[in-house]
């Protein structure tokens, strides 16, 4: 009788053990190991939330559960420049201008923040030319790697160019806004300096051009558990995966803002320390498209 009782206990233990392991054992995951991923494939197969804002202007967004080993909330504008879109750069010489304010005043379809500015007094701190007039030169002492490229346009001709050897004054384009680092040129992602600005994760705003003459704008949120932000090398990889052949980083951090007509601010600007749509930072230059 005693022996049968022991056998019964052993059998019960085995049954319970088998049931516990039916799903396998979940082992701890080491997130310090770089993720093996085909970023272009992920980008192209993602079920983006997509809205056609107007003919030639598409807005899409998605919260990736895991790219670059982290959560990332990404907004993208795809603007077909062959459709004759009107691109403008509202600006202030002193003081500050919100992206949303500029967008509403211009009757824009979409809008996004521009380049670096003086956070105390306002106004651009990098080279800015508009309607053929130089509005600002890059201020003395500004980090050269953050103004080593510019988005330029003359009429319906758009380019992303490196800083000329002879300086910004040699540009013939009627409009140019410097920024940096330059992320891509001639279809290649560029090497970047090993400095904190480049290697830390932050919210980012970048522009890029494709072979078929589309302007790609990417606004990546950061400084949140819901979206950690990107390094500059990661941003270059993302712009390549989005199909760009040239790309440029603009002001990020709390400045990174994406705005859509009828929606308002659609990303999660970080300037208020919350993951909501209210943390928009006023800047000096804004891009509007209509």
Structure write-up:
With 290 residues, this protein is an alpha+beta fold. The chain has a domain at 114-213 and 224-252 and 273-279. The chain contains five helices and 18 strands. It has helices at 2-20, 39-45, 99-106, 196-199, 232-241, and strands at residues 49-54, 57-67, 70-80, 87-88, 110-113, 128-130, 133-136, 149-154, 157-162, 175-179, 182-185, 188-189, 204-210, 214-220, 244-250, 258-260, 264-265, 286-289. The strands form three sheets. Strands 1-2-3-14-13-15-11-12 form an eight-stranded antiparallel β-sheet, with helices on one face. A five-stranded antiparallel β-sheet has the order 4-18-5-16-17, covered by helices on one side. The chain has a five-stranded antiparallel β-sheet with strand order 7-6-10-8-9, with no helix packed on it. A hairpin with a 2-residue loop joins strand 2 (57-67) and strand 3 (70-80). Helix 2 (39-45) crosses helix 5 (232-241). The longest helix has 19 residues, at 2-20. The N and C termini lie far apart (88 Å). The relative contact order is 0.19.
